Amino acid sequence: MLELVGYLDRFSARPGGMLGVKVSAAMPYRADLVRIRHADPNPAGPGMKLIPVPAAWAGEYPARMQAVALGSHGVVEGELGLGREFTLLLRLQPWLPGGVPVAVEVGGHVLRLALGAEGLRAEADGVGCAVPPPLPRRWYEVSVRVGGGRLRLEQRALLPIAGRGDEGVAEVALAEAEWSGAARIAFGHGYDGRVEDPVLLDGMAPAELGRPEGLLAEGRVRAWWDFSRDMEAEAIKDRGPGGLHGRLVNLPSRAMRGSRWSGAEHCWRHAPREYAAIHFHTDDLADCGWETAFEIRIPEGLASGVYGVRLRAEGAEDVIPFYVLPPRGGARERIVFLASTFTYQAYANHARGNLDDAFRARIAEWGAYPHNPDEHHDFGHSTYNRHPDGSGIGITTRLRPILTMRPGFLTFDDPRGSGLRHFPADSHITDWLEERGFGFDVVTDEDLDEEGVGLLAPYEAVVTGSHPEYHTQGTLDALQAYVEGGGRLAYLGGNGFYWKVARRGPVLELRRAEGGIRAWAAEPGEYFHQFDGTLGGLWRRNGRPPQMLCGVGFSGQGAFEGAWYRRLAVPERLAWVFDGVEEEVLGDFGLSGGGAAGFELDRADPLLGTPPGTVILARSEGHQPHFVTVPEELLGRITTVNGEPAPRLVRAEIVYGETAGGGAFFSTGSITFGGSLSHNGYANPISRMLENVLRRFGA
Length: 699
Fold this sequence. Notes:
With 699 residues, this protein is mainly β. It is built from 8 helices and 42 strands. The protein folds into 3 domains: 4-68 and 287-297, no CATH class; 73-280, Jelly Rolls (Sandwich); 305-697, no CATH class. Strands 26, 28, 29, 31, 36, 37, 38, 39, 40, 41 and 42 form an 11-stranded mixed sheet that branches. It has an 8-stranded antiparallel sheet with strand order 12-11-10-9-16-7-20-19, with no helix packed on it. Strands 8, 13, 14, 15, 17, 18, 21 and 22 form an 8-stranded antiparallel sheet that branches. Helix 5 (445-451) crosses helix 6.
């Protein structure tokens, strides 16, 4: 654990609103408020700008360490009468050795199924027996019979493999006991794998589970936790006569393929019994659950913007960012910056494996944020990482410290720039807005998802950050309605509006379905979200290519380095975009990879929805051979969806377009664009071009 670290109960609040500050501290600390204007520690740029702001809650606070309990499990509690003879039946798909898939405590007696080095072991009141180790990622039917002075364990492979000893029967003498009274049943403690259809039956039942519905009809079921019920929820439903329902902790993955999956249906809503498995992971996390150290009230007169709760103690510091919105219904400026908090959350605590000695030396030399997810695993990782069992992390919460969402956090040891992404990289844009005299309010993705297009309606223009990649149906609908209804969108990034996510309060769910550049691939049949039952994956696969909203969409990717744009001939009606810009080459400089057109690149494509009349103002060039076309554009080795040669699709395009409703969009098609704005004291062609556009948009 870090000696001093915290998080907030929300990313944003309005004046008069409250935020709860959750802190774990090994020593007393002082808290104060700062405005985060520029979060890039690179000495070649403007430098860090954390501006102190008076706050009534600022002061000294006592030490208090708070732990994090990683790992998902299920819990059922109540009264249960099993008598002196009963049978536990279930299906298991272990992904890693270890853990306790099921534990049954009744009337002071304990029955546990545990995975160990010797195999699957059943133990009742300290007496146990074991069968051979199950093979990873294969389904088994397991029965445990208690009674008649014996404990009997049987493991049967549902897809037997010739020559493999992964089945077996074992039994041991066991004293007779009455298993009735107060009960606690737990699923998945310390376990990486899937559990399906745990059933408790009266008497010494057959060893085959078959169809639990039949056993229920025969009146032999005491409890049957059918995980195909209420998959959108965090409840465990018992279909037995006692209705012994339970709950899930730390959001394991639901709507997972079970042992009965046939492949005939890929949407779990259409065949829920084929998706009756829950996948537990030892590093799942839905909420750290820390106690509130103190609360802060947002003063009525505090300007909308990017702020931070700064915690400081001897040798330790943490700055926890948050956003102050304008008063409800009271936009204070004509421009609003949309903070990409869904993207920050998707990448939260991304462990990249790139923290070497040279990178550490740069962090120390610049006084950058010192902590990296490569070295700290206490708070879970990102949807770009995998669980210990190799499955992709598809659920991410903001109710935890997010090390990657800190001023001064360096993502890459960028030889030509700062190596910033996401939250600190977006400060290149907000700092530039302030430097060039643009007043702006701030809202977040989460606010937009909750309030819809009405949140944007008072503004003449919406400005995005460098990488607005992740969106819900609500945020994408709101942005589309805003532009079509006369609003103006300045999309200042790349790889935007790409992945679809589902949201439940502070938690996002992602299914990396077929297509797209992916850190991991969802299993076939597991493309539909558990939270809302809708198809996940790329928005393009959901009929909403980014080109429909902002004229451009993801086209190419390379290492974190930037090239430049070259101006194209434009109609006279758009000559104002380049007022005061004499250069033909734009952005061959910058704090992000050394150039304005880099890393992830977007281009226009009428086949994917770029609106008619959209004008390409500039096109990138100079990309190194390691840049590749994104896989969703490829039909074969060289064949592409639109027929252009694959290498030509590696380009970023700056476009301008207008909608029938009087709206407009200006898109830069590059993640590294914002890093060029401060070059030469903010006086450069990239800065001038953007200023021309936003002056026109905000007029």
